[in-house]
Write a structure and sequence with these properties.
This protein is mostly beta strands and 88 residues long. The protein has one helix and five strands, in the order E-E-E-H-E-E.
C-alpha cells in the first residue's frame, strides 16, 4: 500500500522566541523509497500546529496510512487518509 505510515505522534507545547505558546503535534512517519533512490523505507518527522491540524481536519493516529500534499514552499497543504485501520 502506497503512502506514509504514521509511526508516532507526540504532543508539542513550547514558547517561541517571541514568547508565544505553540501547541500541536509532531508526526513521525515512514514511506517507501522511490526505487530510483534506493530500497526500503524513508523515515521523517513533520510538525503540525493545533491550528493547522484543525484546518486540515487531520487527527494523526499511529498506524494510519496517509498521503501528504505539499505546496511550492514544502509545507503540507492537504492530508488524504489512505487507510485508517489503526487496530493492530
Amino acid at each position: 500500500m502506497d503512502g506514509a505510515t504514521v509511526e508516532g505522534v507526540v504532543e508539542v507545547d513550547f514558547k517561541n522566541d517571541k514568547g508565544e505558546t505553540i501547541t500541536g503535534k509532531a508526526v513521525y512517519y515512514t514511506e517507501p523509497l522511490d526505487p530510483d533512490r534506493g530500497e526500503g523505507r524513508f523515515a521523517g518527522k513533520l510538525f503540525f500546529s493545533a491550528a493547522k491540524l484543525s484546518a486540515l481536519g487531520f487527527v494523526p493516529t499511529v498506524g494510519q496510512v496517509v498521503n501528504f500534499l505539499y505546496d511550492r514552499d514544502g509545507r503540507v497543504k492537504a492530508v488524504t487518509i489512505v487507510d485508517d485501520d489503526t487496530v493492530i
